[in-house]
Each structure stands twice: as structure tokens, then as C-alpha cells.
Specification:
442 residues, alpha/beta, seven-stranded mixed β-sheet, 13 helices
Length: 442
């Protein structure tokens, strides 16, 4: 039985960064990844980067075929780079194999050469998350139903696409395919989109998506899926009505769940939550003191940059002053890459009201920003929630071009308690979307 100082299961953002860190400290580390096409994790291979590459190329008017090839070249290059970032370290080893727990200290790995038992002083689980596929008649048997990863592998453009789910993944794919020229229908369970977003922004974004040609079936429940000669027939309930639509393919975007099924955690004392997530303390340690869980698998926010922050916590615990924990994680933004993009950080007006805070609201139309006119898409708005006394920022929502960049400045201001007045008086380069802050906070 071979023993290692450290074993990491999963080659995701946190795992591969931790592996490189441990190796830089001359610690022996084995990182196990069952899928050689997933070196670097979900983000660079089948999520954040390939989808954003396709989205941006669609918005530029690039053809689907060309955009697909560009995406594949990018992911291949990044996957290879991520592999060598770890594999080329003197004390690091990358193993392409399945891994499962035999007990709290033993892992069984299986590959084409057979099985082997491994142990380690420390074990880190970084297996990410996997799509939730609902139990719907005919869905699992259909040859025209895809999750986001499989959808990204479709070399031929889907001309008539149906999407089940109206969360960030569903809306990003809807916007992307509409920009490529496909007909898109979204089956949304709720009565409206973006329920957690400022209501006036959600209403505006919905109208813009519809203007871009996307059809929405609100308050709908998909009841059956049936393959046809050239696609799929979808039967759904909308109130008391039964409706049917035809599509070339159905993208299922109903959320993701922790990827733990193959780990056989029942053989360990690792505690799991209601959604299957691995329960961790504020230092990411599981109920077994020699095992940690990082990234989506521990039930935290499912963002690659949050996964990276999990690495920062462990890096600080192992090699720093041990002050970083989940309890003092900095505020962070979120972005849904629509056209224009929708980004937010902190509280909405409704949340500030619920907390009983004394606040003021600042808002303005994106059309008032010269750069929006230069880009050619003046749609959207800015809305900020400020402390009424000192004008520090409690939250902000940006629905505008380049929102994904501007929101990072707002996040930094919030983290360092920089008031909106200081952002108001800052001199920004021109023309930029960030100039909006001069007028927004005036």
C-alpha cells in the first residue's frame, strides 16, 4: 500500500492550485483526476471560459462554426497548461484514475492497469459539482437532451433550442444561441426571471432578452419528453393548460449538485448535508480531521473564484498566520453574461429594507454613459444602495455593457469601506463604462 504526504481528489481550481502550492513547499502530493479532459476543472473546460468565449464571439457576430473551433483551441491550450503546472513539479504526481474511499484513511484508485490502495497524511476532496437531471418522463432516455457540458460539445448549431431552467446557466445559453441566430424557448418554472435581482433591473433584462428573440414560457412544468424523427417533443403544463412544443434539442439547466456519488463516502465518517454536500468547518476541515473539502463539493457558492478563495484559506492555515476562514471571507460579486451583462454585489434595496437599514438609493440609465453609445448597446441601468450616513456602498446592481469589470471596482470599495463620494470624485479614463460612477454618485 503506497503512502503519500498529500492526496487531492479532483483537478479543479482549488485542487490544482493547492497541489502546486504543496509541491512548491517540497511536499509530496498526488492529484487524482478521473477525466483527462478535465485537467484544470469545470471552469476552463466546460463552464466559465468556454461559454464566455462563445458568448462574446456570438455578440461579435462570429459564425457558430468558427466560434466553436476557437473555443476548442482555447480550452485545449488551457487544459494542457494546467496539467503541466502540477505535473512538472518535482514532488507532484498526476494520476488519471477513478478514486473512492475504503475508509477514513484509505483510497482505492482504479484505472486500466487495475486497482491500488493508497493512504495519505492529508486528503483533500475537490470533485466539484454535477448537473441535476430531474425525473421527467422520457428525459433520461432521449437522445436530444443535454446538460451544459454536452451542449458545448455539439459541433452543429442547434437551430431550435429549448431550455429547461431560467437560472444563470439557462439564460446565458439562451442569450448566446439567440445571438448566433437560433430560435430559443425557455421553460421557466417561476412567474418571472431573476427573482433575486432588483425588480426594475429584472423587468428590463427580461424585456431585452425577449427583444433579442427569446421566448419564455413562465409558470411552466415539463411533464414529458419524447424523441421524434428530427428532434424532441416537449409536453408541459402551464396552469391548467397542457402545451406542446417541438425543438431540435433540450438543454437541461436546473442547477448543480455536489459531485460525491462515486466517492463512496458511506465508508467514512465524513458528514454530508441535505443536498449531499460535504460538511466543513470554517477552515474547510471535514468531520474527519485529516480530510478537507474545497470548491463546489462543500456546498458553498458555486463559483470558480470562490473555489480559489477556498485555496487561500488552506494556504493561510498551512503556511500563513491562520487568520483566514470562511467567517471572514471578503464580499464578492456575481455576473450573468447576458447582453448586456448583469452583475451585482452586496444587498438589494429589498434586502436593505428587510434589515431595517438607513439607506439611500442611487440609480441611472446606462444610456447616459458615452461608452455605451460607442459600443452600440445603451440598454440597462445602474442601481446602488448606500449607507445614508457615510455613503459607503451596501450593494450595487449593474445591468450594462462591461458590468463584469465595473463591479470589481465596487467590490473593492466595499471591502475597504471606500465611500461612494470618493468614487464620485475619481478621475476615470475616457470613454469607459466606469465613468458612470461620476454621474451615478453625483
Amino acid at each position: 500500500m503506497k503512502h503519500y504526504d498529500n492526496i487531492i481528489i479532483g483537478f479543479g481550481k482549488a485542487g490544482k492550485t493547492l497541489a502546486a502550492t504543496l509541491a512548491s513547499q517540497q511536499e509530496e502530493v498526488l492529484i487524482i483526476e478521473k477525466d483527462a479532459m478535465m485537467y484544470g476543472g469545470t471552469c476552463i473546460n466546460v463552464a466559465c471560459l468556454p461559454t464566455k468565449n462563445l458568448i462574446l464571439n456570438a455578440q461579435k457576430g462570429v459564425s457558430f462554426d468558427q466560434a466553436f473551433e476557437t473555443k476548442n483551441k482555447m480550452t485545449s491550450k488551457l487544459r494542457n497548461k494546467n496539467y503541466h503546472k502540477v505535473a512538472d513539479q518535482e514532488t507532484a504526481t498526476v494520476l488519471n484514475a477513478d478514486a473512492e474511499f475504503v475508509d477514513d484513511k484509505t483510497i482505492k484508485v482504479t484505472d486500466d492497469s487495475g486497482e491500488e490502495m493508497l493512504t495519505a497524511d492529508r486528503i483533500f476532496i475537490n470533485t466539484g459539482s454535477t448537473p441535476i437531471m430531474p425525473s421527467i418522463e422520457g428525459l433520461s432516455e432521449s437522445k436530444h437532451v443535454f446538460a451544459s457540458r454536452e451542449m458545448l460539445d455539439q459541433r452543429k448549431q442547434t437551430q431550435n433550442l429549448a431550455i429547461l431552467g431560467s437560472g444563470p446557466i439557462g439564460l446565458e445559453f439562451a442569450s448566446m444561441y439567440a445571438q448566433f441566430g437560433s430560435n430559443v424557448t425557455v421553460l421557466a418554472h417561476d412567474a418571472q426571471l431573476l427573482r433575486r435581482v432588483e425588480p426594475e433591473v429584472a423587468e428590463m433584462a427580461t424585456a431585452d432578452l425577449e427583444e433579442d428573440g427569446i421566448k419564455f414560457a413562465f409558470n411552466s412544468v415539463l411533464s414529458s419528453v419524447e424523441d421524434t424523427d428530427d428532434g424532441v417533443k416537449l409536453t408541459y403544463q402551464q396552469g391548467d393548460e397542457t402545451k406542446v412544443i417541438a425543438a431540435d434539442a433540450l438543454l437541461v439547466a436546473t442547477g448543480r449538485q455536489p459531485n460525491v456519488a462515486d466517492l463512496h463516502l458511506e465508508n467514512t465518517h465524513i458528514k454530508q448535508g441535505k443536498r449531499g454536500e460535504i460538511v466543513v468547518d470554517n477552515k474547510l476541515q471535514t468531520s474527519v480531521e485529516t480530510i478537507w473539502a474545497l470548491g463546489d463539493v462543500n456546498g458553498g457558492p458555486q463559483f470558480t473564484y470562490v473555489s480559489l478563495d477556498d485555496w487561500r484559506i488552506l494556504n493561510n492555515q498551512f503556511y500563513g498566520d491562520q487568520t483566514r476562514t470562511l467567517d471572514n471571507r471578503p464580499v464578492y460579486p456575481t455576473t450573468t453574461f447576458l447582453k448586456p451583462a448583469l452583475a451585482s454585489v452586496g444587498l438589494t434595496e429589498a434586502q436593505a429594507t428587510e434589515k431595517g437599514l438607513n439607506f439611500i438609493v442611487k440609480s441611472m440609465a446606462a444610456a447616459g454613459v458615452p461608452k455605451a453609445q460607442v459600443i452600440g448597446d445603451p440598454r440597462g441601468m445602474y442601481k446602488a444602495i448606500l449607507d445614508a450616513k457615510d455613503h459607503t456602498i451596501l450593494g450595487m446592481t449593474i445591468y450594462a455593457e462591461e458590468a463584469y469589470e465595473t463591479i470589481n471596482l465596487i467590490t473593492t470599495a466595499m471591502s475597504h469601506h471606500i465611500s461612494a463620494d470618493e468614487l464620485r470624485d475619481q478621475i476615470y479614463s475616457h470613454p469607459t463604462m466606469t465613468e458612470a460612477l461620476n454621474d451615478l454618485f453625483a
